[in-house]
From TrEMBL:
This is Class I SAM-dependent methyltransferase. Keywords: Methyltransferase, Transferase. The keyword Transcription does not apply. GO terms for biological process: methylation. Coiled coil: none annotated. GO terms for molecular function: methyltransferase activity.
Amino acid sequence: MTADWEAFFTLHRDLPREGPGEPSDVAWAAATAATPATARICDAACGPGADLAALHAAAPQGHVTALDKHPQFVDQARALHRQDPAMTLHVGDMAEITGPYDLIWCAGALYFLGIADGLKTWRSALAPGGAVAFSEPCWFTDDRAQEAADFWAGEYPAMTDAAGIDAQVRAAGYRTLGTRKLSDSAWEAYYGPLERRVASLSPGDTPQMQQVLDDARREAQIWRTYRDSFGYLLSVVVPDDV
Ligand SMILES: C[S@@+](CC[C@H](N)C(=O)[O-])C[C@H]1O[C@@H](n2cnc3c(N)ncnc32)[C@H](O)[C@@H]1O
């Protein structure tokens, strides 16, 4: 582990989630995708497992397979759900999932693969009638403050708007069944605990720790200041060839 990852996990250890989201997002996505109660669901890049209970609730007679590339997050998810026979948790690469799955849920992580590339990769992991639900950073207005534009140009230069996301969905051979803007409470579920942790660890005891704290504080501040112009868009998509 590099010094930076040590600092990152000192800040993020045992936080409930690693990006915005709330249980009603999962319920909405499952309803939009008409996910059956017996569904085989994959939580791709599950982080600490914040969405697992809601995914299980969406398919109470089904099974949830959750994976993340970071063992620290998988361990945290296991601590909550290890005993549940309806869930399988493992360390893994979401680019290599095989399925078949009725729903692939991916909260705030598809951009690591690229929207179109990731959806194409997942096509063969979808069961007939299956769907992908993913949340993605998104511009909601054309009027963008320079500070927010500069921040996202550094963090995620490919960030686009709802039409741009839909264009990538179609380029991958899928169509969009529905979209939903994540609510402020979904963001508070992420930034509230993170900001409290930042306060408790400040000032950082190493330059690396201070940098990680400064970055997290700035990210939350950018969202709080400019949240009308950007956020996360949750999309439910299905292959176009079925
Ligand atoms: C912004 S976090 C979101 C985590 C979780 N879905 C949540 O909402 O709390 C992004 C996650 O993607 C994971 N990740 C990135 N690339 C991955 C890959 N190729 N395979 C599996 N996990 C990956 C990271 O480890 C991290 O947990």
